[in-house]
Amino acid sequence: MLTIHAADLLIPAGGRPPLPGGAVLVEGRQIAAVEVYEELAAAHPTARVRRWPGVLTPGLVNPYGPELLEQAYHPDPREDLGSEPLVGEALESLDMTDTRWGASARRGVQRMLAHGTVAVAGALARPAVIDAVHRSGLTIEHRFTDPEGRPSLNPLAERSPEASFADPLLPHGVATFAVFDTPEMTTCVATVIGGRLLHRRR
pLDDT per residue over 107-155, tens digit each? Predict the structure, then answer.
């Protein structure tokens, strides 16, 4: 099935200028076309249409994969441990089994998706964590240097969008992107990986 994802503004990246009223045509896992919405709708009248407010961009890469998924614990809301990742002494006080690491990683990945993250950078070592990341659809990228700053679930906390974008939005590329409420990219509205809508803000 063909799906058109349209937004007020599309930022394809890869050296191409922003496209007001832009849209991507998705066929399965791939981007079939990147054009102005009216052109895509006219050429593909039977395509399903998802209209998003704000700006559609490439998905984001979080550079703190190991720090957030293997050196921090993401509490289950039922545990009464708060909502922030636990590190340091708070983490050391927990009985961390492989099963618990896997559950923590699944929750962490879901929280990353809510920030438009489609990939994490850095070598992961725990099989339960790696499995959770792969099952979510996120990819794991090589990290040539350790990032500076404080690890955050939000890749844009200390980095610019341009430094955080994953692959640009191009025809024949994988349909992986994010939608934000405004050009300032303060709130993620939706995250799509491989043509699948994995996060949608209610």
Answer: 999 999 999 999 999 999 999 999 999 999 999 999 988 888 899 999 9
pLDDT of residue 37: 97
Average pLDDT over residues 40-66: 97
Question: Could you tell me which residues come within 8 angstroms of residue 125 by beta carbon, excluding any fewer than 6 positions away?
Answer: 66, 70
- CA–CA distance, 162 with 6 (Å, rounded to integer): 21
Report all structural domains of the chain as residue ranges with CATH numbers, in order of start: 2-59+166-200 (2.30.40.10), 61-141 (no CATH)
CA distance 195 to 28: 6
- For residues 136 and 120, what is the distance between their CA atoms, to the nearest angstrom? 12
Are 141 and 133 in contact, with CB atoms under 8 Å apart? no
Task: Note whether 88 and 33 are within 8 A (CB).
Answer: no
- Tokens 């844009």, residue located: 156
- For residue 36, CA distances in Å to 4, 33, 178 come to 11, 10, 17
Q: Please give the Cα distance from 162 to 186 (Å, whole number).
A: 15
List pLDDT tens digits, range 5-28: 999 999 999 999 999 999 999 999
Q: What six digits make up the tokens of 51?
A: 């209209």
What is the per-residue pLDDT for 79?
87
Largest CA distance in the chain: 60
